[in-house]
Amino acid sequence: MSNNGIIKLNMLGLPVIQTLDDFSLITHVSKYTIYQLSEKSDFYYSIYSIPKKSGKPRIICQPSKKLKGFQSWILVNVLDKIKVSSSCKGFEKKSSTLDNAIPHKGANTILTLDLKDFFPNITSKQVFNIFKTLGYNDLISTIFTNVCTYKEFLPQGSPCSPKLANLTAWKLDLRIQGYVGKRGINYTRYADDLSFSGLNPANVVRILPMISNIIESENFIINHSKTRIASSARAKIVTGLVISDDNIGIGQKKYKNVRAKIHHLTKPIEKGNVKLLNEVAGWLSYLNSVDKNRLAKANKYINELYKKHTKSMIQYLIKLD
Predict the structure, then answer these.
(1) Where do the Reverse transcriptase domain residues begin and end (predicted)?
(2) Band (321; pLDDT cuts 50, 70, 90)
(3) 10 Å Cβ neighbour count for 279?
(4) Which residues, at least 6 apart from 254, have a Cβ–Cβ distance to it below 8 Å?
């Protein structure tokens, strides 16, 4: 490793690793294990699929416990120490879909785009370039890359993939922000969801051809079936949150659905329904991060139901004042 590489790693606060011996010493993993996980990483995955909302399969590449542990070390000690672009709001600590929606509050028009096969379209070469840019030599960058990729692409299932995807999209974010910023348009990206908003509907619509060119030139693909433009006549939705002039939240329709699930927990037939209880608890946790007004309403509703159904499943959600 050149002196420049070492200086760069020190400046970024990253572990200085030049050889396999260094790597083994700092991770407390044997050189043989590191070699196996690097050279034969594809054999350490379980592959299965789950259906997307569209019904099409989403391929999940689940790393083994040993490989996932090594990936987690790379995430914590290397990748998490690197900042992403200011436009990136997804998969980052202390960031939520609410942070992604806030910049678009008060806009007259919102344009949303979706990137197709976000993780699989990011290649091992792009991942290698990230580690090289940080200051690591070819050997260590290659080991990092092999451990973090599956069949030469980013696997959905690895703890490193979201951060690596965000770092790969850094130039994409920078170019888009540079183009739309001077036109008075807000831009955020939450993983593969890109959102644009502005006060002038014509200006927002006008950026689409250039944004498409930038995305394609950065080797990403637009899922045109998910392109949406919402003005005053349509609900403005960004990463699942409904944006009005003075509020951001899950929207009335979703909240009614949550209330219905809460009410179901009062039914005798639902006694012992842990699955429904966990689902409701998950919704309450989500509300806590993105819609505290409706969380307060939900908790008030739960307390009211508990007074009438003290021995129902509601008792496990109760939060008395």
Answers:
(1) 31-243
(2) very low
(3) 15
(4) none
Which tokens in the block code for residue 230?
Answer: 């919402």
Phi, psi of 259 (to 5 degrees): -60, -40
Strand-strand pairing, 236-238 and 241-243:
antiparallel
Give the Cα separation of 148 and 162 in Å (integer): 11
Please state, in angstroms and rounded to a whole number, the distance separating the CA atoms of residues 77 and 27. 10
- pLDDT > 90: percent of the chain: 86
Q: Does the pTM exceed 0.70?
A: yes
Question: Is the pLDDT reported for residue 36 higher than 90?
Answer: yes
Is the alpha carbon torsion for 118, 119, 121, 126 positive or negative? positive
Four-CA torsion 125, 129, 160, 30, nearest 10 degrees: 90
pLDDT at position 318 is 84
Distance CA 70, CA 29 (A): 9
C-alpha dihedral, 204 to 205 to 206 to 211, nearest 10° = 80
8 A C-beta contact, residue 207 and residue 109: no
